[in-house]
Design goal:
78% of the residues lie in helices and 0% in strands. The chain is mostly helical and 325 residues long.
Length: 325
């Protein structure tokens, strides 16, 4: 949902500036994050008390409807429709992001196995995102509002989740099974706070590029919405590869895994500034996609290790909040 909710805007950003009022663009870009911030915190607390599978399915189904219908109505610049779209997108992001990580945590207790599955999960998400980015771009070439129709794909995921995802009722207070057990509910905040700060600052850098890449493409005359979609696909494909290998790389580097990821994101931004071009954009989007996938997976995985099992939902909600900011 995070990929579907942001990639579509990065693909059609130039068309939005050409067809919408400035207030509508600002509201569309800012409000989902604000709503998502609150939704992630609320969903985190709720996920610790209910079946995470139900939250996951309802979040997907709601986004399939609102992300497609309200997104397609953006061309009319109606305040009510835009606000409704932004609110629903933020709420769905909170529900799905928190519940999905909680499902993995509940189903896989071993730290090594959990890191592998977390990587596979984010890798699969990136792979689907790569396909959707191409779909967004090609639909946008026909008419920019058509890009939002691809969000109906979330309904397919909801149906698959209904049949194949196991039920996950609330857990007790047993600490996470890892080499870094937390006694009861004390001491976990000191390990979680650094993750929150890292997530915020790295997200600020990466999401700025990811969100406005279409303006970079048009401003430097590198291509149209289809090329922007290609860039998004390259980024998500490389993210898929990095996420799929996360279990292996984390086993080798442990907490040092984020150092090269942060460095590559910084170097990518510098390269875009110093040497704008189609080749640069393709390489940088690929490298930054791999780095982001690695860091993103690490933050969520790490948050499930340093807290008691009955607080995983709360921790996931807290970690997701910097991304919304």
């Amino acid at each position: 949902i995070g990929i579907m909710g942001t990639t579509v805007y990065s693909v059609v950003m130039t068309e939005m500036y050409a067809n919408l009022d400035e207030w509508a663009i600002n509201l569309t870009m800012a409000l989902p994050g604000v709503v998502g911030l609150v939704a992630c915190l609320a969903a985190g607390k709720i996920a610790d008390k209910i079946d995470k599978k139900q939250m996951f399915i309802w979040g997907l189904a709601l986004f399939a409807v609102t992300g497609s219908v309200f997104g397609g109505l953006l061309a009319y610049s109606n305040m009510g429709q835009i606000v409704a779209s932004c609110i629903s997108g933020g709420v769905c992001y909170g529900m799905v992001s928190v519940s999905s990580i909680g499902l993995i945590t509940d189903c896989f207790q071993d730290e090594k196995q959990r890191s592998q599955v977390m990587g596979w999960y984010n890798g699969a998400m990136a792979a689907v995102g790569a396909v959707l980015a191409l779909v967004y771009g090609n639909l946008a070439v026909i008419k920019w509002t058509y890009a939002f129709n691809a969000n109906w794909f979330a309904l397919v995921i909801a149906v698959l989740a209904f049949f194949f995802v196991p039920a996950c009722p609330p857990r007790d207070g047993t600490p996470a099974e890892s080499g870094e057990k937390v006694n009861g509910e004390k001491g976990w905040a000191n390990r979680l706070i650094p993750i929150l700060f890292a997530f915020f600052f790295v997200s600020l850098a990466y999401m700025t590029v990811n969100t406005y890449i279409d303006l970079y493409v048009s401003g430097n005359q590198l291509g149209d919405a289809a090329f922007t979609g290609l860039l998004a696909s390259v980024g998500t494909i490389c993210s898929f590869v990095a996420c799929s290998a996360f279990g292996f790389t984390y086993g080798k580097l442990k907490t040092w895994i984020t150092v090269p990821a942060y460095a590559l994101i910084g170097a990518g931004i510098l390269a875009l500034y110093l040497a704008p071009g189609r080749g640069t954009a393709l390489v940088v989007c690929g490298v930054m996609g791999a780095a982001w996938g690695t860091a993103y997976t690490y933050w969520f995985f790490r948050s499930t290790v340093v807290v008691p099992e009955n607080m995983v939902g709360t921790a996931t909600g807290l970690v997701t909040t910097p991304n919304s900011l």
